[in-house]
Amino acid sequence: MRSSIFVAFDTETTGLYPGFDQIVEIAACRFSNGRMFDTFQTLVNPMRDIPDEVVAIHGITEEMVGDAPAGDDAVRAFFEFVGVDPLIAHNAPFDERFISFNCHKFGIDAPGNAVYDSLLLSRRLFPELNSHGLASLTEVFGIPHETKHRGMPDVIGLHGVFEQCLNRLEKINVLTRDDFDRWYGDTIHFSPEKYDLLVTLPTDFKPLKDAIEKGECLEVVYEDRSGARTTRRIDPQGLYVAYGNLYLTAYCHLREANRNFKLERIHAFRTVDETTCQNFPDHA
Q1: d(Cα 94, Cα 115) in Å, to the nearest integer?
Q2: C-alpha closest to that of 249 among 85, 147, 136, 117
Q3: What secondary structure does DSSP assign to 143-189, as a single string?
Q4: CA–CA separation, 44 and 25 (whole Å)
Q5: What rounded mean pLDDT belongs to the chain?
Q6: Tens of pLDDT along 4-14?
């Protein structure tokens, strides 16, 4: 497993909403046997303004991206760097959506690389931890990560976190890439075909968008396809549009997996304390 080649990658964006928001940075590193041996980084011109509150998070200003390549050139260069190697990202559904939307927008053929989510990995392998954010994990594991929410520092931090995951996988006898794939289950893939016409975020859901941006844990009342309603505790990861509908993607504590929630089926929501969210069971 350690000898397998992976590419860790990260995107920085103007916000959480693919289509309205755009990529401003892509970074990646290729590694195996615990060693990074190739890197990729580019700023991206989003062709729109970067909100001040977002600049305050990642520090990427409009002046910095003025001469940077546009999204189509940046994504093509990223795919050329990646080749056929498997990918890993922290909160991978977020990064996948933005890359996939650019493929949809610019008519780029998306490769079939498997994309693994290190956030999901850390939840499964280190359930004793109170937080699984990248900054928290690098602090717990003593991984240098002074500049947060920038592409290359986050990718380097992610590489260190993945090495810690490999250590624990070895303890449960997951030793080869085949072992890992069986243990991990279904991976993410770039899926530009899911994007359709953009829709407007309903006013009633603006508090939900604000909660996502603040990284707050939520309790939602959700109606499934059968019409049954359950109260679930979730860690939101972002909003996106697919097939003309708005979705919230989140880690669901009830299912212990990443799930997509159709916004129109969320009948109520409130913020809850993160510790409570992790330790209090979901209920019908």
Answers
A1: 12
A2: 117
A3: ----S-SSHHHHHHHHHHHHHHHHHHHHHTT--SHHHHHHHH-PPB-
A4: 5
A5: 88
A6: 999 999 999 99
Q: How much is the pTM?
A: 0.77
Backbone phi and psi for residue 165, each to the nearest 5 degrees, phi listed first? -65, -40
Phi, psi of 206, deg, nearest 5? -60, -40
pLDDT attached to residue 283: 40
Give the pair of three-digit tokens for residue 232.
Answer: 């679930």
Share of the chain above pLDDT 70, in %: 93
Domains in the chain: boundaries = 6-193, 196-279
Residue 255 φ/ψ, nearest 5 degrees: -95, -10
Instruction: Give Cβ neighbours of residue 106 (< 8 Å, ≥ 6 apart).
Output: 71, 72, 75
Cβ atoms of 213 and 56 within 8 Å: the answer is: no
Nearest CA-CA partner of 94 in 9, 208, 175: 9
Angle between helices 118-125 and 92-106 (to 10 degrees): 160
233 strand-pairing partners = 219
**What is the rounded distance in angstroms from the CA atom of residue 143 to the CA atom of residue 135?**
9
What is 6-193's CATH topology?
Nucleotidyltransferase; domain 5 (3.30.420)
Using alpha carbons, select from 242, 265, 268, 283 the residue that is nearest to residue 18: 242
What is the spatial order of strands in the sheet that 266-272 belongs to? 257-262, 245-252, 229-242, 217-223, 266-272
C-alpha–C-alpha distance, residues 32 and 93, integer Å:
23
**DSSP string over 96-150:** HHHHHHHHHHHTPPPP---EEEHHHHHHHH-TT-S--SHHHHHHHTT----S-SS
Phi, psi angle pair for 73, to nearest 5°: -65, -40
Determine the topology of domain 196-279 in CATH.
SH3 type barrels. (2.30.30)
Comparing CA positions, the residue from 260, 252, 284 lying closest to residue 123 is: 252
